[in-house]
Amino acid sequence: PAGPGKGFALGRWRSRAAGHPEAKGELPLAALAEEIDTPGEGRVRALIAIAANPVLSAPDGLRLDRALGEHLDFMVSVDPYLNETSRHADVVLPPPPPSRSAHFDFAFNAFAVRNQARFTPAAVPLEEGRMDESEIHARLILAVSGMHGADPSAVDDLVIERALSKAVATPHSPVHGGDPARLAAGLTGASGPQRRLDMMLRLGPYDLVLDDLLAQPHGVDLGPLRPRLAQVLKTRSGKIELLPGPVADDLPRLRRALETRPATLVLVGRRHLRSNNSWMHNIPSLTGGSNRCTLQVHPHDAARLGLTDGADARVTAEGGALVVPVEVTDAVRAGVVSLPHGWGHDREGVRMAVAAAAPGVNVNQLLDGSRLDPLSGTAVLNGFPVEVTPIS
């Protein structure tokens, strides 16, 4: 339901199998396995996975592993690795390596402390007949939309047309009131993705075009950060909605949860500096050292439970049990244990030889998918109770 007078909506529709609430047009990853393996009208029968390894990152990865292997009719994976998830794909489409890919940083520019823009062309040309990642995605879009065989540039043209049509109707846009066709004809770039980048630069708050970035390969310094909240805020109220109705209504439950101390240990995840995601475990230069799959335990808890540094312990929760080496450290507080994310490279058919040499265990297998945030339905992956016992 929508929040009272706030325009905040969630749960406008629910998943077929378990009734998980929609949030921002998406369903939680916890729903994927059941939507594949639960019979009935609307069952998920085909899947496209892009640079994702949900068998290791979703709760109850064993169920998802079986669902992908036994219940899908067709699966495509865009991934450079044959990992725990992509091994089930009927077609694996590996993107080219970074040296053969152009790059403009969208994601991490959001964390920048100074305005700048930089475009890096591919250092090495693509091999003959090899598709870059944007063409792979464009061809998949054409295939699922019934336009298989059409030129991939059709996707870029459609994106440009829709973006410009929206921009000319937006009062704060620098092209407000313009002609979308004329604006599209003025874009530059050697490829569809470059034309799209040129369009986004022109629609931004600076007098900047793609040719400017091509002329300055080390980047363009745009000065200090500047406020532009009025242009980007999209709430219906026109204000920053710090406390929407559904969130306010959920505060009593949150207070009760904070007042209830679990009788057992609480497990939290962690990511090492050289192990942010599962694919990094297959890079030789990032292995070893502190990048290990261990259960970190505070010295007080280790002494109380009879756990020894370097010895194995059994960790048990509602989803199952894991055996993992103990690392006694005061880096975690008493009452809390920590097990890193993205490990468990011991399944057949995975072609990640470096990762398989030290497979570790999958922390998300301790969860059965039943722990969900009540508002969004998102799976709870941290802060859940576990029991830890020593193994002789």
SSE inventory with pairings:
Layout lengths: L31 H6 L8 E5 L3 H4 L3 H10 L3 E5 L12 E2 L10 E2 L10 E3 L1 E2 L12 H12 L8 H15 L12 H6 L6 H12 L6 H6 L4 E4 L5 H4 L12 H5 L1 H9 L5 E4 L26 E3 L1 H7 L6 E6 L2 E9 L7 E3 L14 H5 L26 E7 L2
Parallel strand pairs: 1-2, 2-3, 8-12, 9-11
Antiparallel strand pairs: 4-6, 5-7, 8-13, 9-12, 10-11, 10-13
Helix pairs in contact: 4-5, 5-7
Notable characteristics:
392 residues; alpha/beta; Barwin-like endoglucanases; 6-stranded mixed beta barrel; 13 helices; disordered N terminus
Which architecture of the domain at 246-390 does the CATH hierarchy give at level 2? Beta Barrel
Query: Helical proportion?
Result: 25-40%
Measured on Cα atoms, how large is the radius of gyration? Answer: 24 Å
CATH topology (fold) name of the domain at 246-390: Barwin-like endoglucanases
Strands, count: 13
Major sheet size, sense and barrel closure:
6 strands, mixed, barrel
Globular, elongated, flat, extended or rod-shaped: what is the shape? Answer: globular
DSSP strand content: 5-15%
SSE order, as H and E? HEHHEEEEEHHHHHEHHHEEHEEEHE
Ranges where pLDDT stays below 50 over 5 or more residues in a row are: 1-6
Name the strands of the widest sheet in spatial order.
Answer: 8-12-9-11-10-13
Separation of termini? 53 Å
Q: What structural category arises from helix and sheet content?
A: alpha/beta
Count, helices: 13
Mean pLDDT: 91
The CATH class of the domain at 246-390 is identified as: Mainly Beta
